[in-house]
Amino acid sequence: MAESEIKALLDLDRELVWHPYGAMPGALDPLLVTGASGVRLEVSLPDGTQTELIDGMSSWWAAIHGYRHPALDAAVRNQLGQMAHVMFGGLTHRPAIELAVRLVELTPEPLRHVFLADSGSVSVEVAIKMCLQYWQSIGHPGKRRLMTWRGGYHGDTFHPMSVCDPEGGMHNLWRGVLPEQIFAEAPPDGYDTEPSPEYVTHLSDLMQRHAHELAAVIVEPIVQGAGGMRFHAPGYLRALRALCDEHDVLLIFDEIATGFGRTGTLFAAEHAGIAPDVMCVGKALTGGYLTMAAALCTTRVAEGISRGEVPVLAHGPTFMGNPLAASVALASIELLLDAAARGGVPWQADVARIEAALRDGLAPARDVPGVRDVRVLGGVGVVQLEQAVDVAAATSAAVRRGVWIRPFRDLIYTMPPYITADDDLSTLCGALVDAAAASQA
Ligand SMILES: *Cc1c(COP(=O)(O)O)cnc(C)c1O
Questions:
Q1: Is the pTM of this model over 0.90?
Q2: What is the pLDDT of residues 274-287, one digit of tens each?
């Protein structure tokens, strides 16, 4: 693309187009992407040069199989030959039914009913609506608040925002607008740690005090993602499950970031060997192709709702169950689970390989001045700085190494596609280390 054409597009972008968490007009120039395949983004740099960047973000943790995968491309193309979309009210179709069957098979046992939503945030809205309506329907209308722990992220629409970390989640801006929820302290750091009895007592005290008004506890299991990229011990999830049972409160797991293998188990709930009452999946659900998420619930929750004065779940997005998205989701799940289709390598082996490469490759970041912590779990690698990242400096340092990353707050991190080859992983890790150094230069 000619330099003048790139400039014209970027000028229009800055003037007219909102980007995630963006200013208007835009402050930082985005990179112009012209294509993507495998783990590489094809980018037109502002000076007109064309370059390729290894994608360390999997397009926000979604593109687990990389770009333009033949099996996923074919799934979309085949479905396009049937229909792109039909309304889901009064109509149904094979892709949505088969996807629901697959999700029920793969998620923890008592989850049995599937609501297909069009984004992660909407699936969290639906999960919360399920829980509030459950208590309303069975005659406990006072149970309508939510409890969570600090450091979480559950989406950008209003109810999910109310359970995001109060500091990172801009709660001050929305005081009086967001429902006020119950916040426990953030879970203590570290996957491989013994649960702290003091922290469990803290959870237990809060539950005891608020059980009468609590509809549900909602957390991200094992990895808190956009709220701070922190890992916690499975024991806290078991503690929450026991407390919810004891106090008659529902448990929601938001597995939008952790689902489909990212933490080393298919779903993060498996680390703790427990099941929530409601679970959200999204992001990697469609392999990063199209927007779709799901909220799954148990028969207890579904039956409770059906006994109410309003015996329906009153939610029905226009693009609910979109056949293109459902087809590619099915294909992405098959590809994940079928080792033969993945060149004979089971997904667990790929995630373990990535984990080992991230541990090795990011270790040198510990010696970079201003680095506070380096941590890795499954396909998640994090370099945390003492101070906020200089995003422009860190991003350019990575781009010079041929890598795309998107740091936020004090965090430089990667969640690479599972197909990322060893030499690309090593380039990726080198770029994160460079980015950490450049950010404090
Ligand atoms: C990304 C994310 C969401 C929101 O999903 P969107 O599709 O961006 O609306 C919710 N919860 C978690 C844990 C996420 O990582």
A1: yes
A2: 999 999 999 999 99
